[in-house]
């Protein structure tokens, strides 16, 4: 489960500021956090404010290539088989993670597809408007590890209580 925060609407022109990942298993105790130095002079102050960081703080963050390499290693060490990218808003989160992986290390360990948590839940409920965010246990704080954790808790609940067939390898 992955969540990102950015300083604008698209990768390349704007920057991914930080992201978090949680390996979805019964323990939910393996996490990754990356804070990335901006790659562009452009930023939207309103978008950046959601992350809770100032522009000056982000300029001190880590080199994006190093962070993406570290994330790739974490994925390899914490998953078996092909990892599956799942997020609350995969249209947004995926676009940044995929772009950063390809731009900085030339490959994306998740491949070319992703899953959206809300779509899985709505499909199980047979209701395209089903509400699910109240099922999170961890409060949604815009710290990407917290947000990924809350979403991972929902996915795990869907597996354990709604019989979602998902391999937790």
From TrEMBL:
Superkingdom of source: Bacteria
Family matches, as InterPro entries: RNaseH-like_sf, RNaseH_sf
GO molecular function: nucleic acid binding
Listed name of the protein: Exonuclease
